[in-house]
Design brief:
Pnp Oxidase, Chain A; 7-stranded antiparallel β-sheet; binds flavin mononucleotide; 186 residues
Length: 186
């Protein structure tokens, strides 16, 4: 069934939409590709998710006005890089920097499909574009997984209530308490 906004449906204020949705924590994933001149292009998304195991599919949502989306559609491929807790600066650069300078000072290797795998990430998933579906003011980009790997045991970078944070497992917190690290310095 398709739902559309009807005359009696309440209008949702954009500010409130952002504020409330900001309370749902997300991962911070760098979606990378290369342009016709093999120059790296990329953007940050908080909407990366797995879709299907058989066939192996993943997805993310890109604003329809995204310049990176245009390059991904032309290239027909992208790599999803899960950023690590110590990569906040890189995330800011990829999310807000001018497109031509986003990869300055950032080391990367091409995947077998040619998309950038960034140094220092937690894991990556290399894909070809399977489908692009327009949904509201975004495009759902579905990728077919070509290759994927866990790159390090570093903790991931997270985004919550408009700010970056580091993930701490409850086991690590418990260990800190048992060892007494949290007593030091009090
Ligand atoms: C934590 C975080 C999550 C984001 N998630 C998305 C997302 O899911 N989709 C999207 O289109 N933009 C998202 N953005 C914004 C883009 O990264 C940003 O608009 C970027 O400049 C787009 O670049 P482009 O227009 O060159 O493609 C996010 C930004 C941050 C900081």
């Amino acid at each position: 069934m398709t739902h559309s906004r009807t005359a009696d449906a309440p209008a949702v204020d954009g500010r409130r939409f952002r504020d409330v949705l900001g309370n749902f924590p997300t991962s911070v994933v760098a979606i990378t590709t290369t342009d016709a001149g093999r120059r790296p292009q990329g953007m940050i998304v908080g909407t990366f998710t797995s879709v299907s195991l058989d066939p192996p599919l993943v997805s993310f949502l890109a604003d329809s006005s995204s310049t990176t989306l245009r390059t991904i559609r032309a290239a027909g491929r992208f790599c999803a890089n899960a950023l690590a807790g110590d990569q906040e600066r890189l995330s800011r650069k990829l999310a807000t920097g001018p497109a031509a300078r986003r990869f300055e000072d950032t080391a990367w290797q091409p995947s077998s499909l040619g998309s950038p795998v960034l140094d220092g990430v937690v894991a990556w998933v290399d894909c070809t574009v399977e489908q692009v579906v327009e949904i509201g003011d975004h495009q759902l980009v579905v990728g077919r997984v070509n290759d994927l790997r866990v790159e390090s045991l570093k903790s991931p970078l997270l985004f919550f209530r408009g700010g970056y944070g580091d993930y701490l497992s409850s086991a690590a917190v418990l260990l800190d308490r048992l060892v007494g690290w949290d007593e030091i310095g009090r």
